[in-house]
Amino acid sequence: MIAKKQNEISSVTVPIDHYKLNNIISEEEVVFTISREDNRIKAIPLLSKEALLSTGLPEKLEFVYSNFCIVAANNMEEETLNAIKQIILELEVQDYFD
Question: Domain limits of the chain?
Answer without folding.
Answer: 8-93
